[in-house]
Amino acid sequence: MLTSCHVLLIHQEWFLGKPLQDEESTIIHHYAFAENPTIFKYPDFAAAWAVSTPLVVRLANKVRDEPLKSDFTIDLKHEVALYIWDNGNGPHLTAVPELCTEPEDSPQTRRCATTLSTEPPLCGEPVNTEDIFVAVKTCRKFHSERVPVIKKTWEKDAFFLEYYSDYADPSIPTINLGVPNTERGHCGKTFAILQRFLSGAVPDTKWLLVVDDDTLISLSRLQVLLSCYNPSEPVCLGERYGYGLSQGGYSYITGGGGMVFSREAVVRLLDSGCKCYSNDAPDDMVLGMCLNALGLPVTHSPLFHQARPEDYARDFLAHQVPISFHKHWNIDPIAVYNKWLKDDLRPRASDGLNDNAKTEL
Question: In this structure, are residues 41 and 81 in contact, taking their beta carbons and an 8 Å threshold?
Fold first, then answer.
């Protein structure tokens, strides 16, 4: 039997979830609430979230009358919370303790409506290292600063890897693709890499991974994840951002966290005539436009990260076994790699990525 109190609650606007908060203002949230970022809560999608019908109705009317104004979609969970909050005119997120990200076999989950699996999907054996070609974008001014970090951390896990620069340095070695360095965008360099991947100048592999020289990545974890995808299909995988999505825009794989392409995806991109409008155009966004025009999907994985661990909520990373991070700014990149990405043992499909860590894939 419904009481007057229950009826009142049903007709209220509710925004429910497991709250996350930023400890410091972060670039992925456009430095929102810079004076005190902890005051704003947003939901951890991994725990599930819910909105009441009255709120859905109001938001539907709002979207119809006032389309989303933001050009970029970077972190959807934060942006959804901002849109619902509506500069204080809408509800804050209400914490629901039954929405959990605890491992499903934990005794703490007896009160939980949602839990997380402690192991990655059993898609098969990890792909072989010989099936992945790694392309690192660099330039002469970072040969002595960033490249040594890669060599001290994850380079040893790559079977096929080349460094692409504006200067051929035999000590690394780097390959000059004949594209001048640009301060931003790097579209010309990335498309030269795609063309080289299909040219016969490099080994014929199933997968291409393109990273920046300040990307930190676990190739062994990527091998596990790629076992879930068919390289004969046009797969484009990484951290998905969006541009102008409410106005018919497109999604794209943000470059800093690493862009993964199946060979078939590269073939279709280049066969389509897709190209840069300038060498310094944003490579990831140009690729996103081309994939959208071709009707090819852009696949998101939350395990790739465009920014540093410090730029993400602590509780968000607590249930991940991440694949990548990006940027060396104000951090010790080798320490970050050792803490977040280093595996002592090569993962097997029958094992968790890390026996002591919770996994989100």
Answer: yes
Q: Is the pLDDT of residue 315 over 90?
A: yes
| Rounded CA separation 17/313 (Å) | 15
Q: What is the mean pLDDT of the chain?
A: 90
In Å, how far are 22, 156, 333 from 148, measured between CA atoms? 31, 12, 11
Tell which residue, 211, 247, 190, 216, has the closest CA to residue 73. 247
Q: Report the C-alpha gap between 151 and 319 in whole angstroms.
A: 28
Q: How far apart are CA 77 and CA 150, in angstroms?
A: 31
pTM: 0.90
For residues 46 and 116, is the Cβ–Cβ distance under 8 A?
yes
pLDDT at 4: 41
**% of the chain residues with pLDDT over 70:** 90
Four-residue CA torsion sign, 172, 175, 176, 182: negative
The helix-helix angle for 263-271 and 283-294 (nearest 10°) equals 80
Looking at residue 351, what is its pLDDT? 41
Q: Which of 218, 121, 138, 128 is nearest to 176 (CA)?
A: 138
First to last CA, the chain: 41
Q: Give me the helices (H) in 86-218, please.
A: 147-152, 187-199
pLDDT in tens, 241-255: 999 988 889 999 999
The predicted structure's pLDDT at residue 1: 46
Structure token digits, residue 92: 């804050």
**Which residues, listed in sequence order, are joined to residue 209 by a DSSP beta bridge?**
134, 260
How many angstroms separate the Cα of 50 from the Cα of each of 17, 99, 116, 125, 153?
6, 10, 17, 36, 41
